[in-house]
Every structure is written in structure tokens, then in C-alpha cells.
Design a protein that fits this description.
The chain is mainly alpha-helical and 231 residues long. It is built from 9 helices and 2 strands, in the order E-E-H-H-H-H-H-H-H-H-H. The radius of gyration is 17 Å and the shape is globular. The mean pLDDT is 93.
């Protein structure tokens, strides 16, 4: 088994009901369905410590390819195989590529907005909410660049359509969860969506996963990004 718990490296377990947990790092108490088999719990805030390095990477990045940018983020020391950091990283990679491809945005301020929104989507949303945080992150990206609010008309529609397109791709593959796979699927859906609805041509490349050996629940050849399919 590869390591999963940030404290003892043991596998995670998902409970049927919320129970009160105390974060092993900051000692904050909150309800959650997720802990390791040894009882350890790490809150979302502690799990996503290090997002400042994502902002620095994005502000220095020149690529128009959000897959390339996402891969760089995934290799940062703070990023784990699975975790709510992906709920920010998908949108951040898309914002950066969108800006570099000609999108007229204030990248830094929108990255900070992406962090604020993405961090509110907890780990395990994919299984407990029926909406993967990576897919939601792509919808947040469209909401941000379109200026959507609950009272908007077209931006409101577009952001929902974006989330739906990503979740459709994720649902077609099925579970168990893989934050890397779902992030790639959401980004690829967003590249097509932005081209169609915003006229911005972000670059796209073949996706080949380099993280399978780190994933206890890897689905192997059933994954569209499996190395076993290459060649």
C-alpha cells in the first residue's frame, strides 16, 4: 500500500456519518466522514498548505497549455496523490493558460479568488456530494472569467454547463476516485468549452499519467491516461 494518511501513511477510511474530528496538525475540531484507519484526521486547510507556491508558479508561467501547467503543480512538494488542493489547482491552471492564450484578465487577483472558492470544496466531495471538486473547479474558472453571480444570466448558464461537462466526463469513467484523472478530464473538457464559448484557444497535449504507482486505487487500463495504453 502506498502512503495515504499525512500523519502515519496508513490507508484512509470513509464513514457513513459525520463525526467530530480534531486535526492532527492545527488541532481544529470539525465534523468529517474521512480519517485514516488509525484515527488520524487532517483538515482541508492543513491539507492545502502550500497554495502560495501555486500562485508563484502561475505568475511566472508562460505556457498556454493547462495540462502542462497542471503537471507542474502536481509535482510541487505540497501536492499529494489525492486531496482538496486539486479543487484549486484545476481552476488555477486554466486561469493561467487562459491568460497566456490571450484572455484579458488580472491573473493574480483571479488566482486569489480561485483559492478562496476552491478551498471551500472539501475532500471527498466526489463521493459524498456527487460532484467531484476538480469538475467544480472548472465551473468556478468559467464563473470567474465570465463574472458570474447568482443574478447573472449567460455567465450563470455557462458556469453550470462547464461543471456539467466536466462531471459528465468524470462520470463516464466512474470510480474509485483519482484526483489526477479527474483533474485531467476537467481540464480537457474546459479547453473545448473555452474555445467554443469564449474564442480563446488554449493549447492541448496528450495526457499520460505518471502517478499510477502512487495510487492505491488506480483503475489501470480503464483510465484513459494509463501508460499501458501508450504505443
Amino acid at each position: 500500500m502506498k502512503e495515504e494518511c499525512l500523519i502515519c501513511k496508513a490507508p484512509l477510511e470513509y464513514l457513513k456519518e459525520d463525526v467530530m474530528m480534531e486535526c492532527e496538525i492545527c488541532h481544529k475540531q470539525e465534523s468529517s466522514k474521512t480519517r485514516c484507519v488509525n484515527g488520524h484526521y487532517v483538515c482541508n486547510d492543513c491539507h492545502t498548505q502550500g497554495l502560495d507556491c501555486v500562485v508563484r508558479l502561475c505568475m511566472e508561467e508562460t505556457s498556454k497549455n493547462p495540462i502542462t501547467i497542471m503537471n507542474k503543480m502536481m509535482r510541487l512538494d505540497f501536492c499529494h496523490m489525492h486531496g482538496p488542493e486539486h479543487h484549486v489547482m484545476v481552476g488555477a491552471a486554466l486561469l493561467t493558460a487562459y491568460k497566456n492564450a490571450g484572455g484579458d484578465i488580472d491573473l493574480h487577483s483571479l488566482l486569489m479568488e480561485m483559492i478562496s472558492r476552491g478551498k471551500k470544496v472539501p475532500g471527498g466531495a466526489c463521493g459524498f456530494w456527487g460532484a467531484c471538486g476538480a469538475g467544480i473547479s472548472s465551473g468556478m474558472f468559467v464563473s470567474i472569467i465570465s463574472g458570474s453571480t447568482p443574478l447573472a444570466k449567460e455567465p450563470f448558464a455557462l458556469s453550470h454547463k462547464m461543471t456539467a461537462a466536466s462531471l459528465e466526463k468524470i462520470g463516464e469513467i466512474g470510480g474509485p476516485r483519482c484526483c489526477k484523472r479527474n483533474s485531467y478530464l476537467s481540464i480537457l473538457a474546459a479547453i473545448d468549452f473555452v474555445r467554443q464559448h469564449f474564442g480563446i484557444e488554449m493549447e492541448q497535449s496528450e495526457v499520460v499519467c505518471d502517478f499510477a504507482t502512487q495510487n492505491n486505487q488506480c483503475i489501470g487500463k480503464r483510465c484513459p491516461f494509463s501508460r499501458t495504453k501508450v504505443g
